[in-house]
Amino acid sequence: MADTPQPEADENWWRGAVIYQVYPRSFADSNGDGTGDLAGVRSRLPYLAELGVNALWFNPWYPSPMADGGYDVADYRDIDPVFGTLAEAEKLISEALALGIRTIIDIVPNHISAAHPWFREALAAGPGSPARDRFWFRPGRGENGELPPNNWPSQFGGPAWTRTTDPDGTPGDWFLNLFDSEQPDLNWDHPDVREEHEDVLRFWFDRGAGGVRIDSAAMVTKDPALPDLPTEPGPPGTPAAPHPYIDRDDLHEIYRGWRRIADSYPDTRILVGEVWMPDAERFARYLRPDEMHTAFNFDFLACPWEPAKLRTSIDTTLAAHEPVGAPATWVLCNHDVTRTVTRYGRADTGFDFATKAFGIPSDPELGTRRARAAALLTLALPGSVYLYQGEELGLPEVEDIPAGRLQDPMYLRSGGTDPGRDGCRVPLPWSGGATPFGFSPEGSAEPWLPQPAEWGRRTAQVQAGDPGSMLSLYRAAIALRAGEVGLGDGPMRWLGAEPGVLAFRRGPEFVCVVNLAAHPVGLPPHSRLLLTSGPLGPDGRLPPDTAVWLRG
Fold first, then answer.
1. pLDDT-based confidence at 413, cuts 50/70/90?
2. In terms of DSSP bridges, do strands 102-107 and 55-58 run parallel, antiparallel, or are they unpaired?
3. Continuous segment of H or E residues that includes residue 104
4. pLDDT of 234-243, one tens digit each?
5. 260: enclosing H helix or E strand
6. Residue 72 bears catalytic tag
7. CA–CA gap between residue 31 and residue 300 (Å, rounded)
């Protein structure tokens, strides 16, 4: 195991960090096989350092059959050969730390891959075996067990149960899979499951990882009775029964144990939760001082580009975090969500998995203008910011990938009605005028997802030389954020503004103004204009869908 240098000590680095999300498969390909890899990431570390980010969050890089983009993990203590080796991951963590950039890895506690040794052992051992106790195997309902054990739905469509075949070829028990059938759910009542995950945390913390992001963190434990979900609401005034697999109270004991492990290291190691939770009070429970450090803010991510709704989302977020002293997080897009430029160019600028469909029109010019303004808004808000790879390039969602090239189980399990998530996962364009746009060496295999021909004008190389590009805007904003008193973690105060305008102060002098009105607006008194997302009008007024940073 390589020694890992530490960046300048700052135990609270995570409270105001800019964290860049790396989807390894699509970031940079070093060996020409059409798939991104860790050597590719290592080669682009100078780019990430120049961008100014404080940490990298990696989507799963472990051995996996890739039934769900790597979220079907077969071995947590190794690296999938398509991405490289464990030694290369250790080098990446060390080299990034030498540049002042920490590494956050993904942990998927709800399930493992059907290719994991535990599950293979369980299938081979047969019904009633101890090996099956690590999972949720149950006989089916119906005269011959032909019906699933309950009515729980998969997150990817269809039932959340898959039937096994016994060694003699006859249908056997069912196993629970809240996601894909290749992702059997783990039974967190089993001590092996808890011990294994705690050991995995230590494995990566020992190698210098600065934190873990916890996938589907609110779905890990289950009601052991496995009751049906109610099909009808209860009588008015009747308190709702606890959900059988979402946000159960016994989750918190698990994360308190993980926090004790993180806190046992001399420098700060953080826990970041993926917690989809509409109840702000329940959400905040995950952020108590002895549990997770931060959690993703999905309310803001899904919020429409509308002033009242954005302000409500910001206020609600800050109010939810305040009682537990945790910093908020802000994110516009990730590997599951329609890219910001495309979403903000639509009539409905919010995001909801249930409304995803093919053929929704988008105005790319409008979407880009709004995405630029949103970048300044998020980077000025209190707390930490997550930046999904390619957002700094203003990449749009790729919505014309041929059906035969789509790979996401959301698309496949929907019978082709759900576009899935491949459109936001297309490999990045780095340089050159034709595919693979520097993603792979020249003469390489075709990228695993096709890149649009017009991306030549969106490459990092082109944008680095254009002071008006999205990349230049992000570089300037992150640099200003790092040096500006009051930005990052800390308080904010709303300022009076006309309808349709969001204006707030950070620290003693910094002011952010975002115009979401349909007409230009005047700027408040200021001593200096620091940065704008777009040009001001000839009269010095702020145009619609434009943001500005001011010295007050």
1. confident
2. parallel
3. strand 102-107
4. 677 667 789 9
5. helix 251-263
6. no
7. 38
CB 221 within 8 A of CB 242: no
pLDDT bracket for residue 504 (50, 70, 90): very high
Rounded to whole angstroms, the Cα distance separating 385 from 18 reads 5
- Residue carrying structure tokens 């800390």: 490
Instruction: Determine contact, residues 91/42, Cβ cutoff 8 Å.
Output: yes
Burial class (CB in 10 A: 0-12, 13-18, 19+), 404: exposed
Query: What pLDDT shows up at residue 5?
Result: 46
Contact 517, 499 (CB under 8 A): yes
User: Side by side, which strands form the sheet with 493-494?
Assistant: 493-494, 501-506, 510-515, 546-551, 528-532
Catalytic: which of 106, 173, 180, 215? 215
Q: Which of 274, 291, 418, 422 is catalytic?
A: 274
Quote the pTM value.
0.94
Mean pLDDT score across all residues of the chain:
95
Return the pLDDT at 239: 73
CB atoms within 10 A of CB 367: 24
299 is catalytic: no
Taken as a whole, the chain contains a residue count of 552
CA distance 97 to 209: 9
Residue type, 266: P
* Per-position b or e across 209-242, b if 16+ CB within 10 A of its CB: bbbbbbbbbbbbbbeeeeeeeeeeeeeeeeeeee
pLDDT at 280: 82
C-alpha distances in Å from residue 113, one per residue of 8, 122, 371: 38, 12, 36
DSSP letters, 469-509, are SHHHHHHHHHHHHHHSTT-SSS--EE----TTEEEEEETTT
Q: Which of 539, 84, 183 is nearest to 175 (CA)?
A: 183
What pLDDT, on the 0 to 100 scale, is given for residue 237?
66
Which of the 8 DSSP states describes residue 153? B
